[in-house]
Amino acid sequence: MTDKIKTILEQMTIEEKADMVCGASNFCTADASRYGVPAIRMLDGGTGINYEQLIADLILSWRTNPRDEEEAWLMKDFSATEERNVIFDYFRPDKLTEKETKVWKKVREYLKEQFIKNTTNNDTTLAFVEMAGDAAADIMSPACFPCGMMLGATFNPDVVNQTGHALGREARAYGVSMLLGTPNINIHRDPLGGRLFEGFSEDPCLVAKLAPEYVKGVQAEGVAANIKHFAANNQEKNRQGINETISERALQEIYFPGFRACVEQAQPATVMAAYNKINGTACTANEWLLDGILRKYWGFEGMVVSDWGAVYDPIAALKAGNDLNMPGITADPEKVVQAVEAGELTEEELDRNVARVLELMDTYGSPECYDMSAQYIMDMSKQAAYKAACEGIVLLKNENGIFPIRSKGKAGNDSVFEAVSDEEVMSGVVLCGSGAIRLYDCGTGSAGITTDKDSSIYEGLIQNGVEVSIGIPAAGKRAGISTYICVARIPGMEGNDRKNMKLSAEDAQILNQMLDLKRENPLVKLGLILNVSGPVNLALWEHELDGIFCMFLPGMEGGHAMADILIGRVNPSGKLPLTFPKKYQDTPTYLNFPGDGYQVNYGEGIYVGYRYYDKKMVEPLYPFGHGLSYSHFEISNERAIGEQSPVEIIYPDGKVDNKKMPVFTDSIKIAVDVINQGPEEFSEGMEVVQLYISDPYASISKPVKELKAFKKIRLAYGEQEKVSFTLKKDDFASFDSDLHQWVAEEGIYNILIGNSSRNIVCSMPVYLDAKTEYSYSIETPIKVLYENSVTKAHMNHLWLRLGLDPADIDNKYEYEPHTRLINLVYLKCENPEQEALDEFELRVGSLKRA
After folding, report:
1. CA–CA distances in Å: residue 488 to residues 351, 548, 558, 683, 738
2. How, if at all, do strands 706-716 and 684-694 pair?
3. pLDDT for 317-326, tens place per residue?
């Protein structure tokens, strides 16, 4: 706590402090400008500035505190319908009534003032705004960036960082001090989750590598980032109050790592506490979660804000460490005052919460003006959105030469703005399906973006010189058509989970028509582009389709990016951040989603996503990490950097073997070679080298393999590069729920490298030399020692030295095998010979476990 904040707290009344921990409006904090600390505006911003929230909050402030008679008249009886019209028809003002138009003009005037105030230290923006006249407020209509799922598909921390910077720049220009959901890092638990598209991945390692970059990008621009929803907010059904039964191990290994990485690597200004309960306690009132895990264990020093309406007990929330109760229209400061007066909440406890709110406001409430124009910010947003879309689009299938539909020049120039000559025009392509004309750029709800910025695949193909028609033509007009591409859409929305994994009836019908066309003419090529918020069931069509792309919800530049990839100007490089199952019944959560009423059991435990499909040996439609390129990459020559050592290994059954392998205690460096084998027509391409760890002799249940590192590399045709990874001891650790701690068990691990979770092309064993609670000792359970012939012999030798009956061990193994050996020793012998115990410890402790 700074001296400034201490001084302010000393001057504040209890009533003023209560105001500070309760929002003042839907998206603003209470004002403390009388103490030199300004109020801040916060908006959802994970995929762009949320105009719905911004405009609604402006209207609320004018309605609550009109600044003049005209404003009072405008706001009098201004209905919810009129408000929605102003918001959703903001870029179609001709549809508005006279009264709505006047409010619309007030909003535009406010935005114009913000742009002039916040975007430059010179006269550039002012001159630009004045020149634009009435269109001035539209010079920075919000950018719409790819959804979190698509950012996850980039497997590229730099792309995520650039997107964060772009978001931060726009927020500063709008006068927004804090962006909610930057990022949303909840795990993809079930493919039907309504907000699945907002999160990065089903895999905690991928989330933990990408999410901190989003935070760094946003906060580098002087805007407070907000990571949400802490924790395990994985469904929309009964989300406000749903109680999730989750094991401690699943929380630590699956649902926490993304949050922990953000806190430890990026120091986010704020964390959002989730709607749900975990094991009976609401996240907003969960002291173990907020004060224990988040603050004491991970070292978080920022402010915790509730999800909107997630505080069910305001006093319990404050005591647990939830500092700000939002939205302000439902928070009640008087309850806080009464709790202090009644002794339910001490003033010292309240001061702790208030201090964190004030520090946030003081740090981010008055950013310095940018020395850049609004136009420059727009251009940077466009570039970031385009690059993210290009690297996030995933090529799932490509057979019979369907893609690219032609190759213009060399791939990799990352531009959609070059004109093509008439000689380069290509004909014979049909776009059909619900997304042929317009894509779903984003989801709805908090992640919904109201803007006039978008792109379509059709327009992008036209810009690239492709002669393309819309819709399947009549039977007599199909001559010359070589390729049919269906663009199928599935929306994603906050508030409701998807009902199933089916495509829409419209798109299913069109795909059936396309299959009929191929039966009539086997030379016709069929393609599918998935513009979706999650996996879909393709069982009826996948085997007949020549090519499939998944572009998720790609943001405003998605159409341009997809068109450039289709014609070969850009080489696809996206990888699936989640598994595409063949059918919903195959999923890990099929029997545990969305639960019964307000209770849901996370019965799959740590076996989320590919961990489950691997363990159950269920074949997915497309595995985690899968994604094709127009180039072919070879990954080979896996090796450890350093010397190998001979190790005498004792396997669980007692078999002894002497192996030579890399041995390490703290870290190990692994390298592979990657070469771009072409074809030459694509001058360069990108591949994601993925490293997984497998523990074949683990003492506790573990996945078959787990992603621990990855690198996305760009290689020219014929170029070779050595890709290296440094793995630390912590990368080999799992969380033991009995010990309540992370343990990196000694023994053999297999390092697996490939370009998807199911395409492992290199494998090598390494040995972690470490003593842990799992190492053989007098504390080891009898079952473990008994079932290993080597350790059993040592145990019997100890028994004879102690003068005990060996049948004691046999009996214990039969009825209570998990008894620790030391406990049986003292049960049978009051004063065991210490020298015998020490000898046993020395003998078994020197054994190298597999």
Report:
1. 53, 11, 14, 31, 47
2. antiparallel
3. 999 999 999 9
Contact of 774 with 743, CB cutoff 8 Å: yes
Preceding omega of 404 cis (within 30 degrees of 0): yes
Q: Which residue has the tokens 């879909």?
A: 536
Q: What CA–CA distances, in Å, run from 412 to 408, 481, 714?
A: 11, 28, 10
CA atoms of 121 and 136, how far apart (whole Å): 18
Output the pLDDT for position 138.
Answer: 53
Tens of pLDDT, residue by residue over 333-363, are 999 999 999 999 999 999 999 999 999 999 9
H helix or E strand, kind and range, residue 293:
none
Give the integer Cα–Cα distance in Å for 469 and 455: 17
Which single residue is written with the structure tokens 């395990």? 232
Task: Spell out the residues 6+ positions from residue 516 whose beta carbon is closer than 8 angstroms to its own.
Answer: none
Give the pair of three-digit tokens for residue 356.
Answer: 């964190």
Show Cβ contacts of residue 234 under 8 Å, excluding neighbours closer than 6 positions: 186, 187, 189, 190, 193, 244
Separation of alpha carbons 604 and 36, rounded Å:
51
Residue corresponding to tokens 């460096």: 669
Q: Which residues pair with 483 in a beta bridge?
A: 429, 525
- DSSP sequence for 329-387: TT--HHHHHHHHHHTSS-HHHHHHHHHHHHHHHHHHSSPPPPSS-HHHHHHHHHHHHHH
Within 13 Å and on the Cβ side, how many CA atoms surround 740? 2
Nearest to 415 by CA among 466, 463, 453: 463
Dihedral (Cα; 205, 206, 211, 213), 10-degree rounding: 110
Torsion of CA 252, 254, 258, 263, to 10 degrees: -10
CA distance 791 to 844: 7
Q: How many helices (H) and strands (E) does the chain have?
A: 26, 27
H, E, C per residue of 115-149: HHHHCCCCCHHHHHHHHHHHHHHHCCCCCCCCCHH
Q: Tell me the residue length of the chain.
A: 850
Pairing of strands 277-278, 281-282: antiparallel
pLDDT at 121: 52
Question: What span, in angstroms and rounded, lies between the C-alpha atoms of 510 and 505?
Answer: 9
Q: Give pLDDT < 50 ranges for the chain.
A: 122, 125, 132-137, 408-410, 412, 415-425
Distance CA 438, CA 813 (A): 67
